[in-house]
Structure formats: structure tokens, C-alpha cells
Amino acid sequence: MQVSNSKEILLWLIRLRQRYRVTGASMRPLLTDDDEVLVDLRAYRRQQPRSGDIVIAQHPTQVGLLIIKRVMGVHEEGLYHLQGDNSDPSQNSPSLVTAQRIKGRVTSLFTLAT
Amino acid sequence: MKILTRTIKEYFPAQNTVSAHCDGPCGVYDPASARIAAEAALSMTKKILALDPNDQNHATVNSLSRFISIKEEQAQLAKTELLVLWTDYFKPPHLEQYPDLHDTFWKAAKLCSAIKVEINLEKAEELMKVINKIHNIFWATKGREVPFYSAS
Fold this sequence. Notes:
The complex is a heterodimer of chains A (114) and B (152). Chain A has 114 residues and is mainly β.
């Protein structure tokens, strides 16, 4: 994932990117606890999520919980298969969500955890 | 740029968080929720079939409409509950132990879809059998003996 460049920072300043702090380990090694990312909440207004995109989505069953995962594929009934990058199964379980639950695409790594 | 973003983070940390935990932290799973929804869809299917389609009075039409609505809603709910169980609870080691796990869930999800769009008693009863199988697998993975039961 690219580190936020001046264009990304500018987009964040004019509120076309939102900053989120990551909690948890399911996206290791790409993202670790306390990293911050920039997210484009308009990314999927005109196009559908694609395999490989890192997205934030509403948890399929827990109201109000936002999750960050990678799109692994699209099932025949319009369900998106999301999964973290962590290869340890105990740290990572897949989720199936509808397109409406995918809220935005992660566009850059704002800064690493300190 | 790194110094800038690090400084921003230090003095103005992001207020919003996104969870990269293994999944939702509750960890509470039980096939009973799918069973209840599937059983409701089965019950509605039976009630629909018990109505006379040639009886055009308002009470019958009203009942039919309600039964169909509830059947579709509960069949969809059963499917959602099964998909959550499939994707969030079961892990690769379970698949090694139960090689037909994916096929079982896939079949169950397809049955939910069919029950939703059709009036098919045979498939509604078949779904209960598949959920019974999932129930047995689920509790076996937890090392517990929990007998399967239905409300009706």
C-alpha cells in the first residue's frame, strides 16, 4: 500500500479522504494495531469493489462496528467475501457482506504506529 | 511527508477506528438461530399449503399475504445466520475434520433461497435436516453433546 503522498494529504484536508485508526491484527503484516489509513468513502459510488481492494465495511452482524479487510472475491448472489491478510487462522476469519455494507476503499497508509 | 503525518497523528490522532480483529469480538455462535428461522419458514410453508387458493375472501387473501411475507423473511434470515456461522465460526482445521463442510453449507444456503421463492414443503423439511447435520458438526467441534430439537 502506498504511503500518503501530498495529493492524498490534500484530499484529506478538503475532506475527500477520511482518517481511520486500525485496531487489531487481522491485517498484519500490511497494517498493524494503531496504524492510520486514509479512506475514500466515495470510491464505490460509481463502481463496485474489486478483488484485492482493501475496504472498510460494516460488520455483517454487529451494528456500528466498522471492519477493515481485503476483498477476496464476489459470490454469485452479490455477497462480497472479505478477509484479513493475516495468515494465522486464529487471527483471521472471513466475512460475507453485501455491497451496501462496504463503506469505502483504503487509499493510502497515513502513518505507521509509533 | 512522514514527519508531517507523524506530527499530525501525534497531536491530532484519528478519532474514528476500524476493527482488524479476527472478527466481531463477541464470539457467540449457535446454529439454533438458523434452526429457529428455518423452522418458522417451514411452519409458514405448511400454513400456506393449508389455505385454499380458490378461496378469494379478504381474510384468506390477507392470511396468504402475511404467510408469504413471513416465509420469505425467515428464509432469508436462516440463510444469513448460516452464512455467518459458515464464514465466521468455521476455520480450516474444521474443514479437514469435516471435508463436506463447504458442500453442506452451500446446499443449506441454496435450500434457503429456494424456500424463500417457492412454496416447497419438501425443501423446507430438507433444510431442517441439513441444519440438524450442521448442529451436530458445530457442537462436535466444541466437544459438547447438545441434542437437536425443534420448537414444534
